[in-house]
């Protein structure tokens, strides 16, 4: 008996600790997904065929595009910020990092409403821009694609900065010296050393932004005025407004499928590039006879 | 072949003076070792030469060319870093080929050069391996190959063996000597390990904690004729015996309190050698003969009692307490296969040394 207990403690303890999380996942993620699948099929596949012929297909596509643009803009803004934070700034590093993350501690909804006030007519942005004659009095800054992107980028930026900052911070700074010593100027060093070594952070940040951005429904709804249809918002509408659970579930699954396809493509492209950088010649390497 | 010259180089970090008006000439085409204790500024000197740091004042010349303000990536000076700083995302081949790729050298030429250099460092067959899969010694050789592939004027080695185990160190040292013989490139080797410096160097410089060069010379000269107490104690082990300089019949003697007078000999007359001055006699432990019997033919002898014995394998160390209470260290080569005197703790022993084996050092 004692032996059995000891064996359990030794070998199965990790499993015992992991069990609550696993049970939670099974009951609140995988089982609901199965239920959803059941609803979506509704004993016929027609729900899925309907999707491809209807406007819902374009809804998924526009969500993919929005998520992609958001992730790319986040990357363009986040990379230099993370770079300077990790490489150039010596003092107040933690404080600066903290102040970057601080806004995301407040609720998403509060952040979005703050942007509504900033962007609306007579708000801070439009009045300042009007004063300098950059936009006319009648230009709308709110309820368009621009305002959606502003909100998306604002909310998801920290998720891009953090992983990139982490890999850059961990990177051995001696590598930069070695690169310069071997004749590379700053641009060459960045291209050949810094960028490849931070690719894991870029990939992580990209996915951390892309996935939630794809399913995001509050930001496009509130800052876009509900004019353009996106995946998340359409699912909400299907389930809560029209009570059409069958096509709502079908839409959900189709979206997830598209997301998976996108990941698989990302994965292969990433590995291809990594291998290419490492040995240059993908097939054959540098063999000497 | 171009020599390296530091002229009045001063460098401070955060207000702390590291190098103060340093002058140093490193001859071309030689294996030059820079030896000094940790934190003496020898790595700073190396980084200034590589271009990783800039001088506060002074000039650095490579041959006739002033390279003081030349950017690092233009200098024909390459470094083997202490922890190697190999690119973890690149294969062995791409690591070594890095500088050639930067120069946009043709693929065929790169392959040719890489073949030669990988052969030199015995890494053929490893070219497509990833860096993390290599052992410490192999990584060290990749770092070396990467630094020499573009045929620099000067190769800098910053404690390159610090991360290797002792057995491997000896092997790598021999490899480095052979490599320098083959390439004829100027090697500047920075270390705090006197054994490494003595082994590899054609010329060596000893740097003290204030960042000043105390002595430059060939290893034998440094070891046999140290110019200061610092050099004598940093390179090898030395017994220091304090005394007063006397003359008798135009020959120097040193009078030591409680021990009497010792004959000394100095090949070069130094101006501080004034009879009556206080000084130190430096005697290397292996230059002293220890015996319980009377021995003939030695200029100096003294007696003492064995206080401690440490067996090192190839030699034995005896710490002998002299009559004046001071300790003297003696090394004795071990030859157990031939009859040797049995010396034990608390034995009364005679110590002998020649006057030529004494180095006179400033107080």
CATH architecture descriptor of the largest domain in chain B: 3-Layer(aba) Sandwich
What is the CATH topology descriptor of the largest domain in chain A?
MetI-like fold
CATH superfamily name of the largest domain in chain B? Answer: P-loop containing nucleotide triphosphate hydrolases
| Main beta-sheet annotation of chain A | none
Number of domains of chain A: 2
Give the SSE order of chain B as H and E letters: EEEHEEEHHHHEHEHEEHHEEEEEEEEEE
Structural class of chain B: alpha+beta
Q: How many strands of chain A?
A: 0
Strand-residue proportion of chain B: 25-35%
Shape of chain A: globular
Mean pLDDT over the residues of chain B: 92
CATH class of the largest domain in chain A: Mainly Alpha
Please indicate the count of domains of chain B.
Answer: 2
CATH superfamily of the largest domain in chain A: MetI-like
Note poorly predicted spans of chain A.
none
Textual characterization of the structure:
The complex is a heterodimer of chains A (289) and B (363). Chain A folds into two domains: 1-41; 54-279, MetI-like fold, CATH 1.10.3720. Helix content of chain A is 78%, strand content 0%. Chain A has helices at 2-41, 46-53, 56-88, 93-101, 108-119, 124-131, 145-170, 174-181, 186-197, 199-215, 218-223, 231-241, 245-279. Chain A starts with a helix and ends in a 10-residue tail after the last helix. The relative contact order of chain A is 0.12. Chain B is α+β, with helices and mostly antiparallel strands. Chain B folds into two domains: 4-226, 3-Layer(aba) Sandwich (Rossmann fold), CATH 3.40.50.300; 239-362, Beta Barrel (OB fold (Dihydrolipoamide Acetyltransferase, E2P)). Helix content of chain B is 23%, strand content 35%. Chain B has helices at 42-50, 92-96, 98-102, 107-120, 136-148, 166-183, 194-200, 219-224, 229-234; strands spanning 4-13, 16-26, 31-35, 57-62, 65-66, 77-80, 154-158, 186-191, 203-207, 213-217, 239-248, 251-256, 260-263, 278-283, 289-291, 300-311, 315-322, 327-333, 348-353, 358-362. A six-stranded mixed β-sheet of chain B has the order 6-7-8-3-9-10, sandwiched between helices. In chain B, strands 13-12-11-14-20 form a five-stranded antiparallel β-sheet. In chain B, a hairpin with a 3-residue loop joins strand 16 and strand 17 (315-322). At the A-B interface, helix 8, helix 9 and helix 13 of A face strand 6, helix 3 and helix 4 of B.
């Amino acid at each position: 008996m004692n032996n059995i207990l000891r064996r359990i403690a030794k070998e199965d303890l990790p499993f015992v600790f992991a069990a609550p999380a696993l049970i939670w996942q099974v009951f609140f993620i995988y089982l609901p997904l199965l239920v959803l699948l059941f609803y979506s099929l509704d004993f016929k596949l027609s729900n899925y065929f309907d999707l491809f012929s209807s406007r819902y297909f374009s809804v998924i596509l526009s969500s993919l595009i929005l998520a992609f643009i958001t992730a790319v803009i986040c990357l363009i803004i986040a990379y230099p910020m993370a770079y300077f934070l990790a490489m150039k700034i010596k003092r107040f590093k933690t404080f600066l990092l903290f102040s970057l993350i601080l806004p995301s501690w407040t609720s998403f909804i509060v952040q979005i409403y703050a942007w509504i006030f900033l962007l609306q007519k007579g708000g801070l942005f439009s009045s300042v821009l009007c004063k300098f004659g950059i936009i006319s009095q009648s230009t709308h800054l709110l309820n368009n694609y621009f305002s959606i992107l502003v909100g998306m980028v604002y909310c998801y930026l920290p998720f891009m900065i953090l992983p990139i900052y982490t890999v850059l911070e961990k990177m051995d700074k001696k590598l930069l010296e070695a690169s310069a010593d071997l004749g590379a100027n700053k641009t060459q060093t960045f291209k050949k050393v810094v960028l490849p070594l931070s690719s894991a952070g870029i990939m992580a940040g990209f996915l951390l932004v892309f996935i939630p951005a794809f399913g995001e429904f509050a930001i496009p709804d509130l800052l876009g005025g509900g004019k353009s249809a996106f995946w998340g918002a359409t699912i909400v509408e299907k389930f809560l407004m029209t009570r059409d659970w069958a096509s709502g579930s079908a839409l959900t699954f189709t979206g997830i499928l598209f997301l998976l396809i996108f990941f698989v493509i990302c994965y292969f492209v990433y590995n291809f590039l990594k291998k290419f950088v490492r040995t240059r010649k993908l097939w054959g390497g540098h063999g000497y006879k | 072949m171009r020599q390296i010259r530091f002229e009045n180089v001063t460098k401070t970090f955060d207000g702390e003076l590291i190098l103060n008006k340093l002058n140093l000439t490193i001859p071309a085409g030689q294996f030059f070792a820079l030896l000094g204790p940790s934190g003496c500024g020898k790595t700073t000197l190396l980084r200034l030469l590589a271009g990783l740091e800039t001088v506060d004042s002074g000039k650095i010349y490579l041959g006739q060319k002033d390279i003081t303000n030349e950017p690092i990536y233009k200098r024909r000076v390459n470094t083997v870093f202490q922890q190697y700083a190999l690119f973890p995302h690149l294969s062995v081949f791409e690591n070594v080929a890095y500088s050639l790729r930067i120069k946009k050298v043709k693929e065929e030429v790169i392959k040719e050069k890489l073949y030669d250099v990988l052969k030199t460092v015995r890494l053929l067959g490893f070219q497509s391996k990833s860096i993390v899969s290599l052992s410490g010694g192999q990584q060290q050789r990749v770092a070396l190959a990467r630094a020499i592939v573009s045929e620099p004027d000067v190769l800098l080695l910053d404690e390159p063996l610090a991360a290797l185990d002792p057995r491997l160190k000896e092997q790598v040292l021999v490899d480095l000597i052979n490599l320098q013989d083959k390439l004829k490139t100027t090697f500047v080797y920075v270390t705090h390990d006197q054994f490494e410096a003595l082994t590899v160097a054609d010329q060596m410089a000893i740097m003290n904690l204030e960042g000043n060069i105390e002595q430059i010379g060939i290893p034998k000269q440094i070891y046999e004729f140290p110019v200061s107490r610092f050099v004598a104690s940093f390179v090898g082990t030395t017994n220091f015996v304090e005394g007063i300089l006397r003359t008798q019949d135009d020959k120097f003697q040193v009078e030591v309190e409680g021990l009497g007078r010792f004959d000394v000999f100095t090949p070069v007359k130094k101006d501080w050698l004034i009879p009556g001055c206080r000084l130190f006699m430096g005697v290397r432990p292996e230059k002293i003969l220890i015996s319980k019997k009377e021995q003939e033919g030695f200029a100096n002898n003294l007696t003492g009692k064995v206080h401690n014995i440490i067996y090192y394998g190839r030699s034995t160390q005896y710490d002998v307490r002299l009559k004046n209470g001071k300790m003297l260290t003696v090394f004795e080569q071990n030859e157990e296969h031939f009859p040797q005197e049995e010396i034990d703790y608390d034995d009364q022993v005679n110590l002998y040394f020649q006057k030529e084996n004494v180095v006179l050092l400033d107080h």
